[in-house]
Amino acid sequence: MKTLQSFFSLLLVAAFAISASTVSAQTHQVNTDKSTVKWVGKKVTGQHNGKVKVKSGQLTQEKNGGLSGEFVIDMASITCDDLTDAGYNQKLVGHLKSDDFFSTEKHPTATFKITKAVAQTDKSGNNYLITGDLTIKGITKTVTFPAKVTLTKAGFIAQAKVNVDRTQYDIKYGSSSFFDSLGDKAIDNNFELDLYVVSK
């Protein structure tokens, strides 16, 4: 009897091992039409806000429950939503695309690659702490931020707010950290990204 029980126990262990090994990672492509990246930039006299488009991307739920993924942002698609005067709007967007800011002719895209995702829940309902490599203007820096990621077999919804220090990416225009006597023309070093990314 003990021999028979041991045999069945071995069968169960083997079946579990086979089952675990055949669980595949789930990879989902980003729906670029339904995903949005909103930005907010602040200065002494107020702020501006707008959007940039997600060009491509994917998110993978690994076998161990972790996350990996990479996303490409179309920097040339940057818009301003708060200026209603067409002339002022065009002037600001042109300035943001220039070498003073994002140099979109030389660097038309920015990328973010997840390097670590730790499952944890905070008071805001975020359930992951995401760390990854953010590349802007060809410069890569590590950023960490909380995110709310809802995953199913059908896809995912990811939401997060990310604060970025633009000066780390050689965007120093209007920064009081590098220029004196700017007065009310000073622009905050940090800008905020509000991410809403969904799969196809």
Structural summary, described in words:
- This protein is an alpha+beta fold and 200 residues long.
- The chain is 16% helix and 50% strand.
- It contains 2 helices and 9 strands.
- The protein has helices spanning 2-22, 86-97; strands at 26-29, 36-43, 46-61, 67-80, 109-119, 128-136, 139-152, 155-165, 187-198.
- Strands 2-3-4-5-6-7-8-9 form an 8-stranded antiparallel barrel.
- A hairpin with a 2-residue loop joins strand 2 and strand 3 (46-61).
- It starts with a helix and ends with a strand.
- Residues 2-23 have low confidence and may be disordered.
Helical stretch count?
A: 2
- Gyration radius from CA atoms, angstroms: 22 Å
Percent helix: 10-25%
Strand content: over 45%
Distance between the termini: 54 Å
Strand runs, count: 9
Give the overall pLDDT as a whole number.
Answer: 89
Largest sheet: 8 strands, antiparallel, barrel
- How would you describe the shape? globular
Low-confidence stretches: 2-23
Order of helices and strands: HEEEEHEEEEE
Which class best fits the helix and strand makeup? Answer: alpha+beta
Widest sheet: strand ordering: 2-3-4-5-6-7-8-9
Give the SSE map.
Blueprint: H1 2-22, E1 26-29, E2 36-43, E3 46-61, E4 67-80, H2 86-97, E5 109-119, E6 128-136, E7 139-152, E8 155-165, E9 187-198
What brief labels describe this structure?
eight-stranded antiparallel beta barrel, alpha+beta, 9 strands, single chain, disordered N terminus, 2 helices, 16% helix, 200 residues
Short account of what is shown:
With 200 residues, the chain is of the alpha+beta class. The protein contains two helices and nine strands, in the order H-E-E-E-E-H-E-E-E-E-E. It has an eight-stranded antiparallel barrel.
